[in-house]
Amino acid sequence: MKQIEIQVLTPTEAADAFATAWHRVEAGGEVTPRLAFGSLRELFSAISAKRLDLLRYVAMHEGLNVRQLAHALRRDYKNVHTDVVHLEALGLLTRDEDGSLTAPYDEILIHAELRAAA
């Protein structure tokens, strides 16, 4: 199962996570792909409920183009296109040369602390 982790991190935490991943790869280890956001507000703006629904639909019905996806979701083409572009930029969707959409991950793990570590 291919996973991606999404975290809410401070800039210092993000730099530390990057350094840890870098060292693990240098040592020949594997690293789970990650996305980091500076706040829950940023995360929910980038990955809204509608975008998550779209992502789930593509994961179950790969090979659709944007027009087919908009029709299947009963959403406006322009809004679906905008969401697809954002999800592609995050690496959560890919598009083939013919425009077919694919979800490269089977699972998204979201980590967000509610309280700062003491």
Describe the structure in brief:
The chain is of the alpha/beta class and 118 residues long. The chain has helices spanning 11-26, 40-46, 49-60, 66-73, 77-89; strands at residues 3-8, 34-37, 94-95, 101-102, 107-111.
Topology, element by element:
Elements (H helix, E strand, L loop, with lengths): L2 E6 L2 H16 L7 E4 L2 H7 L2 H12 L5 H8 L3 H13 L4 E2 L5 E2 L4 E5 L7
Parallel strand pairs: 1-2, 1-5
Antiparallel strand pairs: 3-4
Helix pairs in contact: 3-5, 4-5
Task: Give an overview of the whole structure.
- This protein has helices spanning 11-26, 40-46, 49-60, 66-73, 77-89, and strands spanning 3-8, 34-37, 94-95, 101-102, 107-111.
- The chain has 118 residues and is of the alpha/beta class.
- It has a three-stranded parallel β-sheet with strand order 2-1-5.
- The protein is globular, with a radius of gyration of 16 Å.
